[in-house]
Amino acid sequence: MRIAFTVHGSRGDVQPAVAIGAELARRGHEVRVAVPEDLVELTAASGLPTQVLTPSTAELLASPLVKERLKSKNPRVRLKALGEVADHGRATSERVMGELADVSDLLVTGPLAQDRADAIAQSRGIGFVPLHYCPLRPNASLDVRYREYPRPVSQAMWRLADQTYWLTLRGADRRLRTELGLPPAKGPLGGRLRSAGVPEIQAYDAALFPGLENDWGPQRPFVGFLLPDKDTRAALSNGDDATSPAVEWADADEAPVYVGFGSMKITADQIGGIVTTLLDRGLRVIGHTDHQLSQHDRLLHLDQPVDHETLLPRCRGAVHHGGAGTTAAATRAGIPSVITWLSADQPMWAAALRRNGAGSGNKLARFGPSDLDPLTDPAVAAAATRLGERLTPPADAVASACETLLDAASH
């Protein structure tokens, strides 16, 4: 089979697709990948043929559009900003998607630009399957954010969010579909894919979201968190890796707390305050950041990439931004997480851990010392261990995702 992955976003969006693509390539299938410009070199290190899909995501994340307007208290400003984020690199993305669709049997995307990929796949008469890294479709089981709402209110909020997102895309989608000779789409993509029998792979574990699997049924299969195998992860690090010295330091004494925020832009004062609070409680800390941190004999400062799969099992807990990949790694390690979220799906992961008793969270702007208490609570540690034991092994998750894609490509 010829399978193309066109993945927008950050490393956390790209890496799960690389996990599947590498396994499909090992099975003898023809795999091509297109990613944002700043992630091409990283992705190509996996050995998969890789090309530019859009301009740099890192530049977008650092722009006033994302840092200010997308977080505005004015709903109209946020809505317009959301549309502009969706339009990031649209012209290049549409061209590359079309070129890859011309030589593929199946087009696969991450959470972003799914409407675009669906239209292009339809126009070429090939299959399309999206990967979801968190719950995205309306449901009757979950609250939209960290706060708990009455169930009817939560359901209404999901429907409103789905419809609002569709409204931000509808104009561009109609224009693209007209260019491709397709009729206008009616309503949000999830409902259309459901009607067409298209699977939507849930690339995270059902154990974190009780009830959702029954809510959606087999057309939205929960395969588990997707993680590249050890050799592929080593290739992605390209030798620029601080894992070994960090492991040696972690193993040398009492297990530390890991503090890191991935690609999220936080200030030196914010991460410094969290690190200092943990040190004041007598804990050892690994601070993973580009910012300078005060020297301390119980602090290891890292500014190079690390393999969370190797390091986090040596830790007693983790403080992080709540990205799906970091949440998965901490949960697999069986350690508590305290999530200091900024936006997007991050509050949802904090709520999932709270429901399972395996952690908690708070918005970074409201974060205080008491939010770190779960890291030293034996009951939370025990719950985190139990939750980690229930997760689908990564190799099984990748294999399940491959089977779903190959089945879709053959129809």
UniProtKB/TrEMBL annotation:
Pfam families: EryCIII-like_C, Glyco_transf_28
Any Gene Ontology biological process: carbohydrate metabolic process
Membrane in keyword set: no
Keywords: Transferase
Keyword Phosphoprotein recorded: no
Organism superkingdom: Bacteria
Glycosyltransferase family 28 N-terminal domain residues: 3-57
Positions of the Erythromycin biosynthesis protein CIII-like C-terminal domain: 309-389
InterPro entries in the cross-refs: EryCIII-like_C, Glycosyltransferase_28, GlycoTrans_28_N
Recorded GO MF terms: hexosyltransferase activity
PANTHER family: STEROL 3-BETA-GLUCOSYLTRANSFERASE, STEROL 3-BETA-GLUCOSYLTRANSFERASE UGT80A2
Official protein name in the record: UDP:flavonoid glycosyltransferase YjiC, YdhE family
